[in-house]
């Protein structure tokens, strides 16, 4: 949602990065989360940790709520949500937490952030994944909700957590410019910020 600037300084560097990306043979994602609650859990917990942590949290939720299905085909229309946000809010913070915080300085528990995200979505009339997907086509409502999410502690400087969330929900124009992505890009171009990485990948895709 925030603007950024790329630090690629030459056409040669851009060409090098293009070749490197093509060598990865990227393909569209095949699966996606079935629920907006799982999209939120993924976005909050995946920042700064090994992805196995997210899988453990999702497994914990599945054991309690029997979420069926957990994943759906990315190309299939989403018409239902097996784990709507009201059910997520049935969980207390101690039940959900693994004591990880959103940041080492003035951060809150990731469990707290997840539940705050859920409440913000509900306050803006979003309870299910189909409703969240529809929101992507409503710029004013989307921006209002996004601004409210930005106020939740642990946001960081570049909105990576929110970008990951909207990507999980269905915005295929976004990337998650975490440390692994930034380090990979910097092997081919100059140092780059998360916002610069977003803009750069967008430019390459256009």
Enumerate the spans where pLDDT stays under 50 for 5 or more consecutive residues: 1-7
Oligomeric status: single chain
Strand order of the largest sheet: 1-2
Query: Strand fraction band?
Result: under 5%
- Percent of residues in helices: 40-55%
Number of strands: 2
What does this structure look like?
The protein has eleven helices and two strands. The chain has 206 residues and is mainly α. The chain has a two-stranded antiparallel ribbon. It is globular.
Explain the layout of strands and helices:
Blueprint: H1 11-23, E1 31-33, H2 36-45, H3 52-65, E2 71-73, H4 85-88, H5 93-96, H6 110-123, H7 129-135, H8 139-150, H9 160-169, H10 179-186, H11 194-205
Antiparallel strand pairs: 1-2
Helix pairs in contact: 2-3, 2-6, 2-9
Tags for this model:
mainly alpha; Endonuclease III, domain 1; globular
Q: Care to give the gist of this entry?
A:
52% of the residues lie in helices and 3% in strands.
């Amino acid at each position: 949602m925030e603007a950024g600037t790329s630090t690629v300084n030459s056409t040669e560097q851009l060409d090098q990065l293009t070749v490197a990306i093509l060598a990865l043979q990227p393909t569209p994602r095949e699966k996606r989360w079935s629920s907006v609650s799982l999209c939120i859990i993924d976005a909050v917990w995946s920042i700064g940790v090994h992805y196995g942590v997210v899988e453990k949290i999702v497994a914990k939720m599945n054991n309690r709520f029997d979420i069926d299905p957990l994943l759906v085909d990315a190309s299939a229309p989403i018409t239902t949500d097996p784990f709507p946000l009201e059910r997520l809010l049935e969980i207390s913070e101690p039940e959900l937490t693994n004591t990880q915080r959103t940041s080492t300085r003035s951060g809150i528990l990731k469990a707290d952030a997840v539940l705050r995200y859920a409440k913000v979505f509900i306050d803006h009339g979003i309870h299910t994944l189909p409703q969240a997907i529809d929101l992507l086509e409503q710029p004013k409502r989307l921006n209002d909700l996004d601004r409210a999410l930005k106020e939740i502690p642990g946001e960081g400087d570049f909105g990576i957590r929110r970008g990951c969330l909207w990507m999980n929900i269905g915005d295929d124009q976004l990337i998650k410019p975490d440390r692994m992505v930034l380090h990979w890009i910097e092997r081919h171009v100059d140092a780059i910020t998360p916002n610069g990485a977003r803009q750069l990948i967008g430019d390459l895709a256009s």
